[in-house]
Amino acid sequence: MSVPPRFRSTDSGERDFRSVLGPTGNKLQRKPPGMKLENKKKTTTIESKDEKTKKKPDPPPSPTTTLKQCSSLCSSLLRKNSASMTASYSSDASSSCESSHLSVASSSRCKKAVRRSGSAVGRRKQVDEKEDKVSAGGGGGSNGDCFADGRRRCAWITPKADSSYVAFHDEEWGVPVHDDKKLFELLSLSGALSELSWTDILSRRQLLREVFMDFDPVAVSELNEKKVTAAISLLSEVKLRSILDNARQVRKIIAEYGSFKKYMWNFVSNKPTPSQFRYQRQVPVKTSKAEFISKDLVRRGFRSVSPTVIYSFMQAAGLTNDHLIGCFRYQDCCSVDAETTTKAKKTERE
Questions:
Q1: Residue 201: which residues within 8 A CB-CB, separation 6 or more?
Q2: pLDDT of residue 135
Q3: Which residues are annotated binding-site positions?
Q4: Domain count for the chain
Q5: Strand 25-27 to strand 320-321: parallel, antiparallel, or no bridges (unpaired)?
Q6: Biased composition, Basic and acidic residues: where in the chain (predicted)?
Q7: pTM, full prediction
């Protein structure tokens, strides 16, 4: 290791030794014996506590000892610097390793998410392909949604479904209704869907007609609550009372609009809304139109008329045609819609 730099004086024969970093601080070197300096400078020394107590000072260090101390100090500094550099390198390496582990983990998470989304899309494609094969296939009971009569129905109607439910789908569901009694009946039955399924409701339909006098809103509004609550085995007390309250509100609407039919069909401009859904998953639970109708009915005092109930009512009453395009009833309901609209226009002109 090289010693601290020395600067030559103006006289090449003489050297002026500068202060160097020693173990006890910066001190001025004493001139070596046998050398004369032109400008004699007063050396300043740091007096220690011992010197203040008038003890004899230690002899000044020789140049050789000073050089040795400097070389040892420089070597120790170099060792510390090398140790700190190796520590920083190791910390950088560990941080890079950690970051690499994190990047690998994040990339693995992204890959897993992509795989999951890809698997979900793949399953959906498989279901869609199966439904396409069923809709493209011919008749026969071998296909999932095809019956023995060779007709293709909506995906939620299976060969194992109840006969009353299948008949309701084939004859009533989605057909436009313009009769006040029938509209009030379907509204009441749709309100019971929060407690029962369509199969259970249809199995009790005839008994409900007897209790509520064929769902004549004017007659039901005059019924006694005790007589209605006696039929609690068919529906809950909340649903039975809601049918009575709704009948009274329907009676008010008839007095205001002339008929319940006119009030309901004004929401869809007297024309059914044809949907072109290909798959069951595309059929919504509610729409903005159903929410708007529900709010107006609630404002008028109706009960059990949530947006989901109202949309089920719209599907059953034919205000919207939600038969799948592969179902044989889709075209039938579209033709019925055209006939009803032409008849309505003729009655308006007359």
A1: 189, 192, 193
A2: 46
A3: 154, 169, 323, 327
A4: 1
A5: unpaired
A6: 8-18, 47-58, 125-134
A7: 0.61
